[in-house]
Amino acid sequence: MPSNQSCLKKKSPRASLKIWVKSLGCPKNTVDTERLVGQLGLDVLPVQSPRQADIVFVNTCGFIEPAVRESLRTILDLAKVLEGGKKRPLLAVAGCMVGRYGRESLQKDLPEVDIWLEPKTRDSWGELLLNAVSRPYTPSLRKLSTAPSYAYLKVSEGCRHHCAFCTIPSIRGPLHSAPKEQLLDEARYLAGLGAKELVLIAQDLTDYGHDLGADGNVFPDLVRSLGEIEDIKWLRMLYLYPNGITPELLAAVREVPSLLPYFDMPLQHSHPDILKNMGRPFAVEPEKVCDKIREAIPDAALRTTFIVGYPGETDAHFRHLCDFVEKTGFTQLGVFTFWPEEGTKAAALPDQVEPEVKIERRNILMELQQDISRDFLETQVGTSQDVLVDSVNPEWPGLHNGRVWFQAPDVDGMCYISGPGVQPGAMVRADIVESQEYDLSALTPEP
């Protein structure tokens, strides 16, 4: 007679849920996508081809018209790729474009999409997708998609400012800050995964906690607590509004060893007339806040973005901006041409600037910044610096892509590095041996 044990049937392991993801737009979308993949459970398996997937997931950007066009092009291209397969994956589209135009409107124009996910339901994205493919909801923790060296930590959602050109409050809603203890737990988890750098992101980091009735010291208190996490070597701040650069924040940058003196402030312009028309929530002029930072921290890195061709911007306004850039000497700088986004106050303003003038002004400003960047990076040659290694360079054997402290991932230049001890995820001491317009090259010394 067979034993009871031999009669028991072995339970077949459940097949992995295969997913292919495309995250467009800003790092906030990257975090949302990583959390979505975690929500899908431990048996989720990212695949390289959309045809191999059970779920194809696109997290869209809808901030400006070019981003919307990119999102639409991505969706339509994927729909073509998925045609004619033996088993068509579920095509899911989420994010800011959905929040901006609405699920009902998009469904009519893009019937190829199986499920639309709005930003306001992001905590339920995973459950909605699993229900759509008849899978039980057994979520796990966030799964990183960045290089092993760093991770993004989103401290708040939405925005309480109402700049005349911006669609973010209407898409992502009002300011909603994450609880401090939740952020500390997430930061410890990310450190446990090996991330040596945390990049703090929000629409306005300095506004953190104001929706909770807190005073202006909440964000400095948060970064001081994050600075106590031993395995995090670098804390980087992205998106600081000038009126939030307080003495308390400057003191935290000086006193917290891991908090980099890297100030990314989206100033958008320098001239008071244009800033007023933009509805920027500034309590101080851009020149004053830059001077204040450098008085407190002389070696601080200043990064900013500007909009050229804003309605009413004259040649005199633009010359003011060029003079400001030349005088300030930003470490990094990005320039966008103004887009009259539907539903914003700026789209209806008079004195719209001609497209060719916008492009010309952008090119002039970027050429000016290229010279500034080249001169600054030349001063780094011959120094010894910590380099955080992100990845293997795909073109040159033995070469890796890394960054020094004033280079943020994705938006700044990089440091090409080789030598002993260089591998993805490592932080190594290296000699800077060469510079270009935006990049550096470095070598680690022989043991």
Please describe what this structure looks like:
- The chain is built from 14 helices and 18 strands.
- The protein is of the alpha/beta class.
- The strands form four sheets. The chain has a six-stranded parallel beta sheet with strand order 6-9-10-11-12-13.
- The model is unreliable at 1-12 (pLDDT under 50).
First and last CA, distance: 69 Å
**Overall 3D form:** globular
Q: What count of helical segments does DSSP give?
A: 14
Given helix and strand content, the structural type is alpha/beta
**pLDDT < 50 runs, ≥5 residues:** 1-12
Notable features of this structure?
447 residues; alpha/beta; 6-stranded parallel sheet; 5-stranded parallel sheet
Summarize the structure.
This protein has 14 helices and 18 strands. It has 447 residues and is an alpha/beta fold.
What's the SSE blueprint?
Elements: H1 4-7, E1 17-23, H2 27-39, E2 44-46, E3 55-60, H3 65-82, E4 90-95, H4 96-101, H5 103-109, E5 115-117, H6 125-132, E6 150-154, E7 156-157, H7 168-172, E8 176-177, H8 180-192, E9 197-201, H9 218-226, E10 234-237, H10 247-255, E11 259-268, H11 272-278, H12 286-296, E12 301-308, H13 315-328, E13 332-337, H14 355-378, E14 384-392, E15 400-403, E16 415-418, E17 427-435, E18 440-443
Parallel strand pairs: 1-2, 1-3, 3-4, 4-5, 6-9, 9-10, 10-11, 11-12, 12-13, 16-18
Antiparallel strand pairs: 7-8, 14-15, 14-17, 15-16, 17-18
